[in-house]
Design goal:
This protein has about 450 residues and is of the alpha/beta class. It has twelve helices and 14 strands.
Length: about 450
């Protein structure tokens, strides 16, 4: 009942702040739609059976319990700064011998995409736990924000460098936690990292940073999934578009706007598609709420001023249905903690700076020395993303591989019916004997 009341209150708040939008036309962009709703999220309640363990340095550890067979779930909270929201959360899925004991001695760390939390990646993490990994999902600082937050001034200090440091702290904590469960020395635990979307951006920059040279933060293999670090120069129009996007975001930051509320808009649309699926859409009257949700998911490029690729979309389908994903499951995850409404503008600024060839924004490809598998999702960034990894990183790193996974969409890594086939493909690469561990610095 409490959740229902929260949703009803938020629904009327959204109606109060949302001006009318005409039928779909070239002047209707996601930027405009997303700027209207303010807040929408249902908070997750941890299990009453949480077992507390003595704190590791700057961490809080708790065991949630078994979630699938002998796969257990743990939460590790890591303090990364002085502010009230300056912490990151690791959700660990691992096969247990008994509570607080495992044979797993290799880590897999998953870095989520824009505005997504561990809930969207939990099935994937459980899959890899069953393959013998101690699997971690590293949620970023913004997952701590309450939905009714209105003051985002602290995000001014949430620079891209701070996110790299947070990643180091998360990887370090993952080694410590697996050491606690397995009894193996933390320095002996091998780490592979998978980054999706914004997570792939952070992972790539992290691999080129000094943090990856430190023993506690070193990553042995990296799998960036569906990101563009730099376009092929022949894509001049897309490069120019992202340079304009960079300028727009930079102006917002300079004016004191440090947050992006784009997911808040999608959460509102998902809420209407879930609660009143057959009612006429507030944004496009000839479509129902459910049809409009599908349209935004399957033809995302139509709603953006500067689409990343000509056919960029989240999930494949049309206004009548989504093809590979259970719509109700997708809506449920979106509305029950799988997404967050407020994210820092600086991540998008950094991404646009890279893609727009803005001076001062580049990643030193020659420092990326780990075995690397780039996975392009055909309906997302696809082959546009593989160009930089193959042609820039590949100049100095002979262990670069890339694949393009069909045309399902930018979200097809997560909860599509055939996502496990992609997880298996990635797992086969990670276990390949040719992917030798790199040397770690003390």
């Amino acid at each position: 009942m409490k959740m229902r009341v929260v949703l009803i209150v938020v629904f009327f708040l959204l109606l109060a702040v949302s001006p009318p939008i005409s039928a779909l036309n070239p002047d209707l962009w996601l930027d405009d739609v997303y700027s209207q709703p303010e807040n929408l999220e249902i908070m997750c309640i941890p299990s009453q059976f949480t077992i507390l363990k003595p704190d590791l340095p700057l961490t809080e550890n708790s065991r949630i319990g078994l979630v699938s067979g002998n796969v257990a779930k743990y939460n590790i909270k890591v303090n990364v700064g002085p502010g009230k929201y300056d912490n990151v959360t690791l959700t660990n899925y691992v096969q247990e011998i008994s509570p607080w004991h495992t044979k797993a001695d290799k880590n897999l760390v998953i870095l989520p995409g824009h505005a997504l939390t561990e809930k969207f990646y939990s099935d994937m993490a459980i899959y890899y736990a069953r393959q013998g990994y101690s699997t971690y999902i590293l949620d970023r600082r913004e997952t701590n924000l309450p939905v009714d937050e209105t003051d985002f001034s602290y995000m001014k200090n949430w620079t891209f460098d701070e996110y790299l440091k947070d990643t180091y702290e998360g990887i370090n904590a993952s080694r410590s936690h697996t050491s606690l469960l397995s009894g193996k020395p933390a320095e002996s635990i091998e780490v592979t990292a998978i980054g999706h979307s914004h997570g792939a951006l952070i992972l790539t920059a992290y691999e080129a940073s000094e943090y990856d040279d430190l023993s506690a933060g070193s990553v042995d293999r990296v799998v960036p999934v569906d990101i563009i670090i730099a376009y092929n120069p022949k894509n001049s129009e897309l490069i120019q578009d992202q340079a304009q996007e960079f300028n727009a975001i930079s102006e917002s930051i300079e004016s004191g706007v440090y947050t992006d509320n784009s997911m808040a808009g999608m959460m509102y649309i998902a809420y209407m598609a879930s609660t009143e699926p057959d009612a006429g859409s507030y944004f496009q009257s000839e479509l129902t709420n459910r049809q409009f949700f599908r349209l935004m998911a399957s033809q995302t490029y139509r709603f953006s001023r500067y689409p990343y690729t000509p056919d960029y979309h989240y999930w494949s389908g049309n206004a009548n249905s989504l093809d590979y994903v259970d719509e109700n499951h997708l809506l449920s995850l979106t509305l029950t903690g799988g997404t967050v409404p407020h994210t820092p503008n600086r991540l998008d600024q950094y991404m646009a700076g890279l893609m727009g060839n803005v001076e001062g924004y580049e990643i030193n490809s020659s420092r990326i020395d780990s075995p690397l598998l780039y996975v392009g999702l055909g309906g997302g960034f696809g082959d546009y993303g593989s160009w930089w990894y193959e042609n820039e990183v590949g100049k100095t790193n002979s262990r670069v591989t890339s694949i393009n996974w069909n045309d399902q969409g930018h979200g097809s890594l997560l909860i599509d019916r055939n996502s496990p086939a992609l997880w298996e493909l990635i797992d086969n690469w990670m276990k390949n004997d040719k992917n030798l561990k790199k040397e770690k610095s003390p």
